Amino acid sequence: MKTIAIAGTFDTKGEEYLYLKHLLESLGLSTFTIHTGVFEPTFKPDISNSEIAEAIGLDITTLAAKNDRALATEALSKGMEQLVPELYKQGKFDGIISLGGTGGTSLVAPAMRALPIGVPKVMVSTVASGNTAPYVGTSDIVMMPSVVDVAGLNSISTKIFTNAAFAIAGMVKFENTKVIEKKPLIAATMFGVTTPCVTAARKYLEDRGYEVLVFHATGIGGQSMEALIEAGFIEGVLDLTTTEWADEIIGGILNAGPHRLEAAGKNHVPQVVSVGALDMCNFGPYDTIPEKFAGHKFYKHNPTVTLMRTTVEENEAIGKKLVDKLNMAKEKTVLMLPLKGISAIDVEGEAFYGAEEDKMLFDTLREGINRNVVEVIEMNYAINDVAFAEAAAQKLIDLMSK
């Protein structure tokens, strides 16, 4: 029989969690309850809050006596992050569900993120319709808006809780039994303005027996790729779209953080890297762009996204950062430069064409790259030319074959 872990504050929301527990059991599932609250629960759980605290060497009585909600939440969250993956490895549950506001979500989300991708995870939360990145991260947590606060049972909350219960029940009951042929996994990065390149490269690789995972280079996409490389899922990286570094350095909205472009080199994973879409930084609607960027060249990609052309000075800074990251690689790293344009709108005649800007980027890379570590290949093509795409794909195959 499949088992669902129910994790949450059984001291303050015991009624709601008992409703969820009885509903899941009525569907023919077992439940495994984990109490994350500071005080005594309204019903006896399978895992107590004292066990969670002990997982990181703390005492729940001492925590409760401090009467510091923020301190207790942080401690129990860390304990959950440590304990829950161990409980999963022991076979205690097949999926996990929780309910909560900001505090309850913060308590359980790190533990959910620590579980392997593919383990069903449902979080019913009052903050599910806002910025969920701090809670979901690079995981596959399903965030469901609670609509009303998780405070009692009413005609709205019971419907939401029921939908959530049916969702997690379906996830654990109906497994995909289709056997997918195991192929070497390649990660590739893509943006709208590098789509033709990555599409051609993906087809080239798939025709030769590889499976390609494409990540949208929107910040969280790059972070997700780096996380999968770190976790050992990826055997080769076709990082043709490094645009997230423009946003990180300039201050756009699609940055992937300071550790982008590190995982492959650090973990000896073969990688072919290029400079796709580094001609642009991303903002929201035009009227949201900070005044300090007045004088830049802009392109309205759609009503909610405005692109800003990177300048000569900004490209120098971006180039230096790529140099730092690529020179960290231990082996099997290639940098490919498309000399006729680095995005669909950075070719002659298009809105962001900038020979001087691109020259600064290329020159900074040429001068800074350690050729003993990184091979540099320059091609007289634009990034979206099929010849460039296929050459990059073949180069990755060559690296993986060595």
Estimate the helix proportion, in percent. Answer: 25-40%
The largest β sheet comes out as: 6 strands, parallel
Q: Per CATH, which architecture of the largest domain? A: 3-Layer(aba) Sandwich
Alpha-carbon Rg, integer:
24 Å
- Which whole number gives the mean pLDDT? 94
Structural class: alpha/beta
Uncertain stretches of 5 or more adjacent residues = none
Please list the strands of the largest sheet in the order they lie side by side. Answer: 7-6-8-9-13-14
Instruction: State the separation between the terminal residues, measured CA to CA.
Output: 46 Å
Beta-strand level of the residues, as a percent range?
15-25%
User: How many helical stretches?
Assistant: 14
CATH homology group of the largest domain: Uncharacterised protein family UPF0261, NC domain
Number of strands: 14
Overall number of domains: 2
Name of the CATH class of the largest domain: Alpha Beta
Q: Report the CATH topology name of the largest domain.
A: Rossmann fold
Order of helices and strands: EHEHHHEHEHEHEHEHEHHEEEEHEHEH
The coarse overall form would be elongated
InterPro entries: Tobamovirus_resist_UPF0261, UPF0261, UPF0261_C, UPF0261_N
Pfam family, one: UPF0261_C
Domain UPF0261: 2-176, 183-400
